[in-house]
Amino acid sequence: MRFDEAYSGNVFIKSHPNFEESEAVIYGMPMDWTVSYRPGSRFGPARIREVSIGLEEYSAYLNRELEEVKYFDAGDIPLPFGNPQRSLDIIEDFIHKLLAEDKFPLGMGGEHLVSWPVMKAVAKKYPDLAIIHMDAHTDLREEYEGEPLSHSTPIRKIAEHIGPKNVYSFGIRSGMKEEFQWAKENGMHISKFEVLEPLKEILPTLAGRPVYVTIDIDVLDPAHAPGTGTVDAGGITSKELLASIHAIAQSDINVVGCDLVEVAPIYDISEQTANTASKLIREMILGWVQKRK
Amino acid sequence: MRFDEAYSGNVFIKSHPNFEESEAVIYGMPMDWTVSYRPGSRFGPARIREVSIGLEEYSAYLNRELEEVKYFDAGDIPLPFGNPQRSLDIIEDFIHKLLAEDKFPLGMGGEHLVSWPVMKAVAKKYPDLAIIHMDAHTDLREEYEGEPLSHSTPIRKIAEHIGPKNVYSFGIRSGMKEEFQWAKENGMHISKFEVLEPLKEILPTLAGRPVYVTIDIDVLDPAHAPGTGTVDAGGITSKELLASIHAIAQSDINVVGCDLVEVAPIYDISEQTANTASKLIREMILGWVQKRK
Amino acid sequence: MRFDEAYSGNVFIKSHPNFEESEAVIYGMPMDWTVSYRPGSRFGPARIREVSIGLEEYSAYLNRELEEVKYFDAGDIPLPFGNPQRSLDIIEDFIHKLLAEDKFPLGMGGEHLVSWPVMKAVAKKYPDLAIIHMDAHTDLREEYEGEPLSHSTPIRKIAEHIGPKNVYSFGIRSGMKEEFQWAKENGMHISKFEVLEPLKEILPTLAGRPVYVTIDIDVLDPAHAPGTGTVDAGGITSKELLASIHAIAQSDINVVGCDLVEVAPIYDISEQTANTASKLIREMILGWVQKRK
Amino acid sequence: MRFDEAYSGNVFIKSHPNFEESEAVIYGMPMDWTVSYRPGSRFGPARIREVSIGLEEYSAYLNRELEEVKYFDAGDIPLPFGNPQRSLDIIEDFIHKLLAEDKFPLGMGGEHLVSWPVMKAVAKKYPDLAIIHMDAHTDLREEYEGEPLSHSTPIRKIAEHIGPKNVYSFGIRSGMKEEFQWAKENGMHISKFEVLEPLKEILPTLAGRPVYVTIDIDVLDPAHAPGTGTVDAGGITSKELLASIHAIAQSDINVVGCDLVEVAPIYDISEQTANTASKLIREMILGWVQKRK
Amino acid sequence: MRFDEAYSGNVFIKSHPNFEESEAVIYGMPMDWTVSYRPGSRFGPARIREVSIGLEEYSAYLNRELEEVKYFDAGDIPLPFGNPQRSLDIIEDFIHKLLAEDKFPLGMGGEHLVSWPVMKAVAKKYPDLAIIHMDAHTDLREEYEGEPLSHSTPIRKIAEHIGPKNVYSFGIRSGMKEEFQWAKENGMHISKFEVLEPLKEILPTLAGRPVYVTIDIDVLDPAHAPGTGTVDAGGITSKELLASIHAIAQSDINVVGCDLVEVAPIYDISEQTANTASKLIREMILGWVQKRK
Amino acid sequence: MRFDEAYSGNVFIKSHPNFEESEAVIYGMPMDWTVSYRPGSRFGPARIREVSIGLEEYSAYLNRELEEVKYFDAGDIPLPFGNPQRSLDIIEDFIHKLLAEDKFPLGMGGEHLVSWPVMKAVAKKYPDLAIIHMDAHTDLREEYEGEPLSHSTPIRKIAEHIGPKNVYSFGIRSGMKEEFQWAKENGMHISKFEVLEPLKEILPTLAGRPVYVTIDIDVLDPAHAPGTGTVDAGGITSKELLASIHAIAQSDINVVGCDLVEVAPIYDISEQTANTASKLIREMILGWVQKRK
């Protein structure tokens, strides 16, 4: 009987109630206003939390339990509907505060553009930052129909910010010809179609470096993630994505933050996408949080 | 930025954070294991809270705002899956404690059987209790296929407990012939098909009495509440149900508790049923809570 | 334990197991191949039977129980996919046999064209036959894009067969200008938009006559019947349709057969359309079968 | 602006292929980036056009056929995702051009904010303009969480632009207390809950005046329009909304433009909302276009 | 024309009408009242039968046709809603009777707990019984939130009943740490993540032994079985599960009964889960029934 | 036949507005009236076009862009509902005209029977024609329940027309025993279950020959194509189907026409099936059109 305090209704399963004592912080970035196709990812974080109640607290992959890691769920960052610039500023400010408190940021989108201010803030703290990016799409546009703030641009922005050679994209199967050319000409790594095998090759080269990992759920085939804005055939399986998370966990890189974006629940009656996202986040917590040095 | 305390994620909009200071308490009873047709109402309370974020805090009907009433959201009562008796005992115990603290109980189902232990507890505190029951179904069975604990029995149980002449059912359009006969022979009131007009006739006869109001969302026509276990054509409109709530608010009866049950979100992609339920609860809070003497 | 005979899985609730002893026969006509908009009504009869398990066996409207009437469920008539003419011939042959055994035919569609061979067969037995037709659409076309066998034509066909002045349409809100003109010029009755009130005026004029009643579920507003091929706003409520069935039950006409068509389950996740159809059929059984003289 | 040739894409049924010869122009405004609850109305116009193929071309209400009116479908106005100000500017520019060619503008939303630039442009041409507004919500906020460009503000903006006493809202059932007070204090008309009866009283007072009519589909009860961003119980029926359109058609006001907004197809598997919208638009074309003087 | 007997509406395709002559018996166990997450599997058996009409009667894998095996469909065992103990007793009694008649039991769930009384009854007849278990979950809990009768416990119960070393689980990817430990400490076999390869290794060690095979549909990845209570990413493909069924068919073990559980149709609009289940059952019939000695 | 001007309706992304200048012609064949299970593929072509707006115009697989190929979208061929023979005649006539203009035909179904008149017309122009057929089903029946025009017969028809040894089926996992026998006895090639590997073996044997490729979307596993009439477990992945298209593109065969059939959007809320189909068509355009000599 919870009579002594407000009901803590919808937090990611096993979240720690105390911010100070927590090593990591989970937060939602419920923005979807620049997407060019199907909106709805603003509801991703809330649904991922809701279905996390069905998760086992133990990972049979990593042989660890959620109670071994302290993470605080800060809820969804309130963002002004329809104002991308102000939204990104609020997110960046939020992340600066998290990093000032030395917390591991674990974000849930929302559209992929929300990763841009997070990566920028993380790059300020870790000048030697590298980015691992798993996605169906390049996200390397300079602008979309005249708008520089678009869900198609975040990787271009961070690549220009920290240098394209520090950005590693995996699983890419869609983009404009110019985007692939830009990457090639600027020394950015793109592994087309596959994730696990090329990732295993790249990881040793990043040993010891601080790395931020950003995962767009649509790197999965639509069979495994129908609930997303842009479904694109020919993706990887959830088994492969899990294995990729584990490969990072077992590598010598220093994960300093991460996010999982673009879960749009309305397109998936079965809620498999949100359930899968909650499982991926469990593995990210168990495998990555304590890698940070 | 909520860094100082755990994120209070999914509570009914504008819930008060402090139990002691609150006049009313909202709680979920996520049980659906005795239903004979379609299960799923266990997820009703969580979804009603989630969509309540879309509600206006002001009622244009009652000219009142939610901040005028203090109510605490106690979350869902944890109930043991598949064990009706233990579940009902836990609910009854919960309500006794609420009443001991002089709180107004406002419950969300779950299947209709959850109302039985609540009404029993309320009847102990208010010996002169009357019941107002809005529903498509009589719910007057003694048992269902041999089970005395069934979603088809709660009104029979409370009628036998406080006397059938103290129970008033409205909007009933389905039941067994024997149920209607039992009601007739035992002096229980049943208004078939209609709610608002017969209710207006009955209310003056209950003036000054403590009354518990139990509403099965399926009193609404399936057009207005597709997300419920048993959809039954020929029901009332949501406009009529709102007017019925307002008629009670304007009457001289003393509402001492209430519930809204049987919202099963999975059958309603549009979520209109949960949204409607959240609006009904707002009107119940604004119209009924402070009637209690 | 049903070890002695095959499991009778999906029949309309309380169907009688014996054909000879039954007064009425329920049958499905799972054809949807001439529809011009959304197909899917071929699955209507099976789904109506399936959800009928959730029906009360007692009608609180008519104060009768299903066990008071003996009706046999003959299943779905096997029809050759994509061959309208052969399908209609098979249906007509089926009805002739039913009528030869003096059974009351109660059909479930399927698209509305299936009513044409049934009405033709019934008209052969009852030369003085009148038709009561409830529908959103006139269905008075001579052909549809060159095809004389179309779901838009059945009322035209029967009107030409038994004389337009013997056909009474109610609730009509859509059709071609030419269809309304044809009806007017040929003395056929059309009540636009409304059913109950005009029906009450017509019924006394048909006293004593044999009448076949054909109901397209889309006479209901889409709010009440989203699961149909052609949803058309501005229809009647299920409360009004139930009252119309009861008005016929209490009239002096001689109902000699009836059908309910165009339930297409796939467009209605809540299954309210199929549930409503099963309730309507219960009322048709209880109110109409024994009117036959 | 595709004024010189037929739009190559999905068009509303019976659209005229030639812009110059057309009296009215239909266009979509596929913007949903400022909504505070559920997005998705960007796909409304395309789906309304798609399902219009299922419409009868004749109105049994008005006894007119679509071929009696020439209207051109200009397609969806290309709008920059996530940039409300630029989107509104583009819309306003589009409308100025339409009005310069003396076309009757008939817009499809999109969120309600798109009506603001349209009404502003129309007010420039018709200084004596009045607004008839049918909606569940007041839409009278000055800003929403700090954003002056929000789907909650369009009626406030036009009311301040042309004077609150020239704005007439009907069917309103939700809003902030302050919004209702602002309307009252400033002489703006609000009819709560009802549309048809108060509209019939107001229409004669507007005789001869140019009037723009803006309809938010959520003025309908969720039973009749589940496919919209904010479902709000207690609304009117589609029958009542059709009758309201016809009341305007038969009045002496001079309709000079109109829109229908907030159809969000994803929340409505049955597509009844888009089908209803297409029927409403047919009636608006047949009843209103030629009223313009 | 089926005039001479009741319509045998919803049986598994090609079921034999005579119990005595049949070698195997198919039956449904429509219970879902102890599930801790999403209910709905009570409707699994009915939907599997319904969609089996779409199956080819020939297996291109096994080169056999359904008419080569006689199996009787006994329908769903009537179970008392909300009473797990009585339900399990009824199931156990049913199986004892089947086994007394020397029938091969082929059950459809329903939640996984229904397998417990079946396995217990089969173990009584075959003292040397081994269990092959394919599932995403260990199902090895002693109790769930205080309830010993839970969908999380059936494998623990049978393991304790026949000895853990006689139980072989495959495809397991979720469970509590304690469950995996219990298995390890007690000599029970668990193959994590994979099914086909470890199964091929185990099968020869079981040669000649009587084996009961219980398959939880969620051993499949959610991509292949979205319609189940607990969707858990990282599962196997339907191709792999089919191959696993065939590996058993070609082995030297003696399959003496089997079940397929946890199909919950409401979460899968496409009905692929029920269709897949019906195909799996066809292969189980063709590959396993006649292996029994 | 709208050959003289751009189709006024929804077109496939980047379609060329001029028929004469185009090398290929895309067209829909919206027929589904002979299907024996679930209808709805009549809406496949329209939905594929609609979602094609979300496609990248560049193929990262083939390193080509859509603007490198000129293709005209002729819209859907108007077909008479419910009349298979007339529909097939209209299609055949349409194809003869296309071929007379030396256009590459790229058709979208619709049920698979629509491929029969196309293949017949193509065979007339290319007497040495071979067929590559990817499907879950043999489609080799002579008739279905007495109907020679059935979605189960098109491959049989073309095999008899051009000789069974010229027909190569891949991915087949369902059919009647007799169909497999007929293929074997008549020298027709069937690769069961797999596509890519056997295709790579066959392609060199067809070098230089004119080949028509017909793909039933259900060759994909239901996980990858839930939106189709007959979902059949055990299929290939979209990754494998893409690779098969690319294998053909890189081979020495001469593709002279192709189609993709059986997309039925209503069964797939996520629209992944239509999105996948649009991507497959992009690859077919980029990889196959200019192979024609």
TrEMBL record, chains A, B, C, D, E, F:
Binds 2 manganese ions per subunit. The keyword Cytoplasm does not apply. GO terms for molecular function: agmatinase activity; metal ion binding. This is Agmatinase. InterPro entries: Agmatinase-rel, Ureohydrolase, Ureohydrolase_dom_sf, Ureohydrolase_Mn_BS. Catalyzes the formation of putrescine from agmatine. Belongs to the arginase family. Agmatinase subfamily. It catalyses: agmatine + H2O = urea + putrescine. Pathway: Amine and polyamine biosynthesis; putrescine biosynthesis via agmatine pathway; putrescine from agmatine: step 1/1. Mn(2+) binds at H112, D135, H137, D139, D216, D218. Its cofactor is Mn(2+). GO terms for biological process: putrescine biosynthetic process from arginine, via agmatine; spermidine biosynthetic process. It comes from Peribacillus saganii. Its EC number is 3.5.3.11. It is an enzyme of class 3 (hydrolase). The gene is speB.
